[in-house]
Amino acid sequence: MRTTSYYPVLMTGDVDGTKDFYINHFRFKPLFESGWYVHLQSAEDRRVNLGIVQGDHETIPEEGRGRTSGLLINFEVRDPDAVYERIVAAGLPILRSLRDEPFGQRHFITRDPNGVLIDVIKPIPPSAAFLAQFAEGAAGA
User: Which residues have a Cβ under 8 Å from the Cβ of 50 and sit 6 or more positions away?
Assistant: First the structure.
């Protein structure tokens, strides 16, 4: 299979609220809006896209309807400290405070209005113990 694009689509009961959250806090812009579906694109990188769909819409098979849960979205950024300051100032919940991890990340975790976790990450050099676990050429990629 040759994939030409990949992006998550979040199922929600509040399409407009979820859209506004990602526009206001993570710098997305709408490319398409239909009321029951919104396609967002990062205002900073057109390769970063996110869909939002009404979780009970008829296009979703009945057994899959609902809202997204058990999902962690990673946003890899250049300056997680600046994003952290902005997110804290906006009053968003901080589920994991900004920290350096031995597995090679400086990151923090917040969540969207649906409970989807958002991990804001910058790769950093891993500890020697974790470096040995990376596939050849993968660390610091």
Answer: 7, 8, 9, 10, 22, 28, 39, 40, 41
Identify the band that residue 129 occupies on the pLDDT scale cut at 50, 70 and 90. Answer: confident
Question: Are 118 and 109 contacting, i.e. CB atoms less than 8 angstroms apart?
Answer: yes
Q: How far apart are CA 50 and CA 141, in angstroms?
A: 23
Give the three-state DSSP class for 78: coil
Q: How far apart are CA 4 and CA 92, in angstroms?
A: 34
- Assign 62 a pLDDT band (cuts: 50, 70, 90): very high
Is the confidence at residue 14, as pLDDT, over 70? yes
* Entry pTM: 0.88
Tell me what pLDDT residue 139 has: 56
In this structure, which amino acid lies at residue 29?
Answer: K
Residue 118 CB partners (closer than 8 Å, separation 6+): 26, 72, 73, 75, 109, 110, 111, 112
Rounded Cα distance, 7 and 57, in Å? 19
- How far apart are the C-alpha atoms of 106 and 75, rounded to whole Å? 12
